[in-house]
Amino acid sequence: MDFTEVYRQTGNLVHFSPGAHFILNAAEDTLIVRRTDTLQITRTWSIGPPSETVVITSHSKSYGTAASHSHWISQAGWSCDSEYILAASSKRGIVHVFKLRDEDWNASIETGAEGLVKAEWAPDGRHILCFSEWGLRVTIWSLLTASATYIQFPIHPDRGYTFRADARYFVLAERHKSKDTVGVYDTSSNYRLVRHFPSPTTNLSSLALSPSGNYLAVWESILEYKLHIISLAGDVQGTFTPTPDPGFGIRHVAWHPTGMFIAVGGWDDKIHILDSLTWSAASTLELSSRIPSGVMLWREPTDWLESTQGRGFISYERLRGPQSVSIRRVDLTKPNQRSGVVQLEWNKTGTLLLVRFENVPTLVHIYDFPAPSEPFVPRLRCVLQHQKPVLNARWNPVRKGNLMICCGTQSIYTWSDEWEGEGGEEEDMAECIGVPTNMKYETRDIRWAPDGKGLVLMDKDTFCCAFEVEDDVIS
Fold it and tell me: In whole angstroms, what is the distance from residue 140 CA to residue 130 CA?
């Protein structure tokens, strides 16, 4: 991999454009757009007072005069066609919109007394969603007509809404007269209400729409483990509660890419795989301290960063056969216990399931799922063990078996099932890759480029990029 130099950022606001040709990042009150091929700056915009300046490259602890935090950018993002960019300042209640091809064009949205918690693009790239404080309303602003549509009482601005895959319908969890409800809005008709029905939940925690857009999963808060499947007409298709009741609620839910299954993980050590015919558990995966024979344990080598001086790469240690790992047992009768499923994510094709449990923070579990023509027997494929707790793990958005991991160290970790062995057959490979920089750098988050060929690696206040070296350019 080729790594770039380190650049300054704030708020973890670093995003590839949808076409992967540009990288957008925020540095205090300034937006910076760079080309991905050269990392040269092509555009900058400031939303703060003109007298304040920000240093946007990396090598000094002095970054110029700091802008007032009230002017700092809290959300930033690309429209779907990379034509427009938004930059929101929640403390000021203002959303600025800029045009990539026209540096002089700009627009702004002022939310007023209702405040601003979150702003983001709708999938069409011509409407902006603004969530107000206190759950008062969500306002959908149109860039084409400069008009606004208001929807009252959304429940969760971070996890209480979704769009159908074709962007035709906007589904929003609402609360009216102390009862959970769901609204379905037609985005092609200026977000006209087409369905409004009560939710079977008493205290809705979140929702997830199936890839086909036919079914909506809604689930209760932390106090009750109950998942409901409803149609977009409001009919309840099924309800799932495990036996025995684990005592606490659902933490993560992930639809299979085909919509045939849905994975459910709570605050215990189990993952239930529900099928779309009966909405009951077709299989249950459980965390165990024993790794059976036939499952590969990949272990990060001890002190490899020191021995390589943080440069180059080294393979994980391979341990095959029965192995054991330590699990931190928790007492759920006591507060603030670290347990349960902290990440649940399918790969692009749905053949692999990534799971991270909070009570084994250094481990990443990868489960194999059979093809539709094979018997449905999910199995543990491998476990990756690290020296420090895993902070984030991301599947490649294009390649089916390419995973990237970070642990807050000056390195990244990769697992792939696409490695070509000596016999020409594909086999698994896991490697540790150092981030070559002379400054202290802790990779806390990673984000793939949409084309799956590049990565953004983020520290608390800085970022760098990593790109795959194409075979035909290697001399």
Answer: 6
